[in-house]
Amino acid sequence: MTNTIASPELVSRLSAEADLAVIDVRTGAEFESVHIPGSHSLPLNVLDERASEVAALERPAVLVCQSGARSQSALEILDQAGKSNVWSLDGGLIAWQEAGGATAVGSSDTWAMDRQVRLAAGSLVLTGILGSLVKPNAKWLAGGIGTGLVYSALSNTCTMGDMLSKLPYNQTEGYDADAVIQELTGKG
Fold first, then answer.
1. What is the pLDDT of residues 134-143, one digit of tens each?
2. CATH architecture observed for domain 4-109+176-185
3. What pTM does this model have?
4. Is 65 a catalytic residue?
5. Which of 21, 22, 36, 65 is the catalytic position?
């Protein structure tokens, strides 16, 4: 499914359609650091667990993440759950900001998930290479990470990102998915 919307079109739709929901599928900490004003935080793992409730939402919705990959995954989840009036923001928050879209900046210093993945993967590869100077079999750590990155690109999934998203610094204290769902459905 490739239902995407470009940043300029989203700007016009937001000003014209009061019921258009913007759902940010990044981690809570990423959302707290910067997000589109008026958007709702529903991390990808939560959206996956609550897909039927979100799919039942009558309002049209635009899904947002950092670069567009996670929102595209969320789009596929909601499509399988039966939601048709949903789009993924093409290029994610990066494209939104480059197009001059408004953002709300918070106090969180949490890095975007793609940056966290690059740091973790790079650190593990470097550890494997340097470790192989002492223990030759340590090179397989670098090979394993490289294989994982290739699989990640081919499958458009990111196991490392999924694992990192569960770390405490990527969580939002007091996050209430029920409240977000109620707000989206207008029952809150």
1. 999 999 999 9
2. 3-Layer(aba) Sandwich (3.40)
3. 0.78
4. yes
5. 65
